[in-house]
Design brief:
By secondary structure, the protein is an alpha/beta fold. The protein contains 9 helices and 7 strands. A 7-stranded mixed sheet has the order 3-2-1-4-5-7-6, sandwiched between helices.
Length: 259
């Protein structure tokens, strides 16, 4: 039976694919450059991406000549990833499973990767995951997490329609601290850096309404019958190009360690 987490990620897969089609951002390119500058990634390395989504970094790595294994809990994410990776000649594969549920004796653990990454994904969340991640790596590991999140236009629309903004985006600072301590508890030296990561999503009012309904389901802030009100509120925010400009202002923790 499909879990709630899998349902959530499957329902978001098309949104992630739409962003993928926009091309790589300055932030994505900066992450790839950092791996090289920090000595985490060298020519010809094999890379394992935990919680890969639609293959954003897999595509960048394959284009650079790296063999890539893409792992995700969502079949719909991986279907997009396979389409996005199809034209690359370097070796790649996808695996659909829950990394946190693996015990360490599965076939995945007979492979070795120079670099293991998990970017903006809950696939790695605690000490056991850090230990498993490190066991798969021959050189080092990299994890990124949101450290803070602001989405002003989203909150304006929600306050117009239902009188309050969305629930906080988890506990980003606490999650970052806990993950850093997990690396230290596993016996490795955690190295960290906080970077800015702003972006702007362009949506029609109807797309904005559907996005808000999906993303606000967890705290029961919105109901399907509110869609028309959301569309009207989003229409008031349309710019001259015909789209709602949904600006997202975040900071991100980069956390890495070597063996």
């Amino acid at each position: 039976m499909e879990s709630e987490a899998v349902k959530q990620w499957n329902s978001s897969a098309d949104d992630y694919q739409r962003v993928f089609k926009l091309g790589q951002s300055d932030y994505n390119r900066a992450v790839l450059a950092f791996w090289r500058e920090a000595g985490l990634l060298c020519p010809g390395d094999r890379v394992l991406d935990l919680g890969c989504g639609v293959g954003k970094y897999g595509a960048m790595l394959a284009e650079a000549g790296h063999a890539v294994t893409l792992l995700d809990i969502s079949e719909d994410m991986l279907r997009h990833a396979e389409k996005n990776m199809a034209h690359y000649k370097t070796p790649w594969q996808t695996l659909c499973c829950d990394f946190s549920a693996l015990r360490g004796d599965e076939p995945l653990f007979t492979e070795r990767y120079e670099l293991v990454i998990s970017t903006m994904s809950p696939a790695v969340s605690g000490l056991d995951d850090v230990r498993k991640m490190t066991a798969l790596s021959g050189r080092g590991c990299f994890v990124s997490r949101f450290a803070s999140w602001r989405q002003p236009l989203r909150d304006r629309i929600l306050e117009t329609v239902c009188g309050r903004s969305a629930a906080p985006f988890g506990d980003p600072a606490g999650d970052c601290e806990a993950l850093t301590e997990a690396v230290r508890a596993a016996g490795y030296l955690p190295r960290t850096q906080i970077v800015d990561y702003p972006w702007c999503d362009l949506r029609t009012p109807e797309e904005m309404a559907d996005y808000l309904l999906r993303r606000s389901a967890a705290d029961a802030l919105l109901r399907p019958e509110m869609r028309d009100a959301l569309v009207r509120a989003a229409e008031a925010e349309v710019q001259t190009d015909g789209f709602v400009h949904d600006e997202v202002l975040t900071t991100v923790l980069w956390l890495w360690w070597t063996k």
